[in-house]
Design a protein that fits this description.
alpha/beta; globular; 8 helices; 45% helix
């Protein structure tokens, strides 16, 4: 999983805690932007839930899970500590993972393939501020939708799909990473960075983007046979809440019918 952005108001820490409580693994990759140093430098925001996420990950490491942190551009300060361990979490520039099916995957955050981040960091910071504004608007929009019984809707994801330049950027980003995997002789590549979850075969190379825990709340898991699955935890959570609501309504109607003869 990637792009958790601890330290920001947009981080969906409670959903992540629920996910980590349900899914466990012997090997865990934190694929960059786990905390948001850019945002923390502008103003400190670190609620208890964010501490709880860190503690749960450290507990998993303490219980034997192999956890690798691959820094991204927002937590790039961790690139000063490559090769070191923090509470059982190893910091590495990138990693190679071999699935149970024998597929060799390159694991990297992906910001090094983003020309804006690499060549115009000031513009990336401007874009980050604009993105945070969209997330703020999205929060209030969804609060209003919930008052009317509506479901969660991502303004930024909608914008990405509608704006041609954004669509072209995502497509080009995917192509560049696929080319990098081919150059290294890998069967696939796992990345994050662009907050656009995907798991798809592109020619001979498997492209995996773990998404984020700000908008989509997605992660990639591996079955014992080596099959990878993209988990949309926000969608799963919404469906569970809806099923629980329907079940409660049915139970209430049943109880009411049983009481009616005595009224």
């Amino acid at each position: 999983m990637s792009d958790i952005h601890l330290g920001t108001r947009g981080c969906q820490a409670q959903l992540l805690l629920n996910f980590l409580a349900e899914y466990d693994a012997d090997t865990i990759f934190l694929v960059g932007d786990i905390f948001d140093g850019w945002r923390l430098r502008r103003g400190w925001h670190w609620p208890q839930l964010h501490n709880d996420v860190v503690q749960m990950l450290l507990n998993k490491a303490h219980n034997g899970a192999s956890i690798t942190l691959i820094p991204g551009n927002h937590d790039e300060v961790m690139r000063n500590y490559l090769g070191t361990h923090f509470g059982g979490v190893e910091v590495a520039r990138d990693a190679v993972y071999v699935t149970a099916a024998g597929k060799r995957l390159l694991v990297t955050h992906g910001d090094q393939f983003d020309v804006v981040v690499m060549n115009a960091k000031w513009l990336a910071h401007v874009g980050d501020r604009a993105y945070n504004t969209i997330l703020w608007l999205n929060t209030w929009l969804n609060r209003a939708k919930r008052l009317w019984g509506g479901q969660y809707w991502s303004l930024s994801n909608w914008a990405k799909r509608q704006v041609k330049q954004a669509v072209n950027f995502i497509g080009e980003y995917e192509n560049v990473l696929i080319a990098e995997a081919k150059r290294g002789g890998y069967d696939g590549i796992v990345c994050g960075h662009i907050h656009q979850a995907a798991l798809k075969q592109m020619g001979d190379v498997l492209y995996v983007n773990t998404g984020d825990w700000v908008e989509s709340c997605t992660a990639v898991i591996e079955d014992t046979d080596g099959t990878l699955h993209l988990i949309d935890w926000a969608q799963i959570s919404r469906r569970r809440k809806m099923r629980a609501l329907v079940a409660a309504q049915k139970q209430s109607k049943t109880a009411k019918r049983k009481l009616e003869p005595f009224v």
